[in-house]
Amino acid sequence: MTTAPVEITQDLTAIHRSIDQRRLQEKIFILLGLLSILFALLALTALVLDLFFRGLPILNWRFITSPPSSTPEEAGVLIAWVGTLLVMVVTALFAIPMGVAAGIYLEEYAPKNWFSNFIEINISNLAGVPSIIYGLLALGFFVYTLNLGQSVATAGLTLGLLILPIVIVTTRESLRAISSTIREAAYAVGASKWQMIADHVLPYSMGGILTGIIVGISRAIGETAPLITIGALTFITFLPDSPLKSEFPFISFAWLQSPFTVLPIQMFNWVSRPQEAFQVNAAAAGIILLVLTLGVNGLAIYLRYRFRKGIKW
């Protein structure tokens, strides 16, 4: 008669011991995660501080508004940061509308069959393809086949292809995260499929979509390999043509065909030189690139905040 209570006590003891072991494992895992995050933040902080300590003393208006020069004291980043902004404009205008539209189609309209599954798998794989492959693709297609040349348009389209899978995947995930009750409620009041997507699903998912756009643009703005592959210049002393002009229609697209350079390539050029002064110039250019990246991200975060604030829950 005393065997059953003893067995129950032993079972409870084993269960408590198992629970204690799992709690200990959970605490160890949390501690390792926190230490990993702390190490990454410390390394990042050290790199950023080193960048600022080296480059901030020479970062002034002359440096920002001067073209490159063979003399480090006279060299500046005007051509590079203007080229970076123009390339990012083309990248955003190409990748964002096409990526969002493709994500909407694949998630809301495409039939669920083997062909759409094949497309989904390839899009996911393209998000992990090395950027140099996109450079080789652009060299053969944009430069030689379409005869766009080594221009701002070619660079923007190349980086647009680079971030297109990221935008598509995040758009689909954001749309998929929206509850089906919102779709059913829209249909219940007589909305068509497109009205349901445009007026209900898309506004609620815009925060996640903009997050994907932020990630994509942040990757594109620092890319060097594909732009070197398509022939970006490492030394250029003249600005691209202005997008604005004084005569009607006051807009010019000649800048799309202009030669260019960007900040990462300018930094690469300076870092490869033996003079210490050029190394300092590269650090200052890195600060400007960091500010540009944070500025683009800040704009996207602000737009995301405005979209979320405008939604009535």
Report helical residue fraction.
over 70%
Q: What does the average pLDDT come to? A: 84
Radius of gyration: 26 Å
CATH architecture of the largest domain: Orthogonal Bundle
Strand content: under 5%
Q: Report, as a whole number of angstroms, the end-to-end distance.
A: 62 Å
The strand count comes to 0
Number of domains: 2
Return the CATH topology of the largest domain: MetI-like fold
What is the global morphology? globular
What is the number of helical segments per DSSP (H or I, 4+ residues)?
A: 11
Briefly, what CATH class of the largest domain? Mainly Alpha
Structural class: mainly alpha
> Superfamily at the CATH H level of the largest domain?
MetI-like
* Uncertain segments: none
The biggest sheet amounts to: none
Subcellular location: Cell membrane
Transmembrane segments: 28-53, 78-106, 126-146, 152-170, 201-218, 280-303
Membrane topology: Multi-pass membrane protein
Pfam family, one: BPD_transp_1
Features:
globular, MetI-like_sf, MetI-like fold, mainly alpha, 11 helices, cell membrane
If you had to describe this structure to a student in words, what would you say it looks like?
With 313 residues, the chain is mainly α. The protein has two domains: 18-58; 60-310, MetI-like fold, CATH 1.10.3720.10. The chain has eleven helices and no strands. It has helices spanning 3-55, 61-65, 78-109, 114-126, 131-145, 152-176, 180-188, 193-221, 225-229, 263-271, 276-310. α1 packs across α11 and α10 (263-271) runs antiparallel to α11. The longest helix is centred in the N-terminal third of the chain and has 53 residues, at 3-55. The model has no long low-confidence stretch (mean pLDDT 84). InterPro entries: MetI-like (IPR000515), MetI-like_sf (IPR035906), Phosphate_PstA (IPR005672). Keywords: Cell membrane, Membrane, Transmembrane, Transmembrane helix, Transport.
